[in-house]
Amino acid sequence: MDFTVASVIRHVTDVLLWYALDLAGGPGDEIAFDNSVRADAAPAALVASLGAAGRVCAAIIDASGPESRGFHPHGTADPSGFAAMACDEILVHTHDAALGLAGDGGGDFTISPDLARAVTARLFPWHESIPDPVEGLLWANGRIDLPGRPRQEKWRWHCAPLAEWDGSAPGTR
């Protein structure tokens, strides 16, 4: 990846705000916000911004009824889809950042297996369960290879309600 740790944190923060705006904006792609975290933000400000964006995203998800829908390029997502995408972004990109910090003596981050299993099941329902759910999440997002399984290079989520999943993997329709 061509990201710095700071750019990964900015990306996740931006995405969490976009998810909140997209869910609040409804299923069309008509909203015209231009939000982004300043590229020159100090590390402490980046962390504070990430926390604030997470709280905003969670508040919008919590305030939305189950019938609410919002725009996403992978499908018109419901609140559970936005929640799962937000968790995926936080987990996978924090893992990325931790790897980037490992050479500097940092990088200690552990993904909850239960959360990894839930996020993978919600966003990648076509993938069978993998014994190590953290490896399953990272593999589904194209971060690692798993023996005997194809590399996930052009992965995508199913963020619309699971009831709308047609039972096939993307690209096989």
From TrEMBL:
Where do the Mycothiol-dependent maleylpyruvate isomerase metal-binding domain residues begin and end? 2-98
Q: Which GO terms describe its molecular function?
A: metal ion binding
Q: Name one Pfam family in it.
A: MDMPI_N
Q: Spell out the SUPFAM superfamilies in the cross-references.
A: DinB/YfiT-like putative metalloenzymes
Q: Which domain of life is it from?
A: Bacteria
Identify this protein by name. Answer: Mycothiol-dependent maleylpyruvate isomerase metal-binding domain-containing protein
Q: Which organism is it from?
A: Streptomyces alkaliphilus
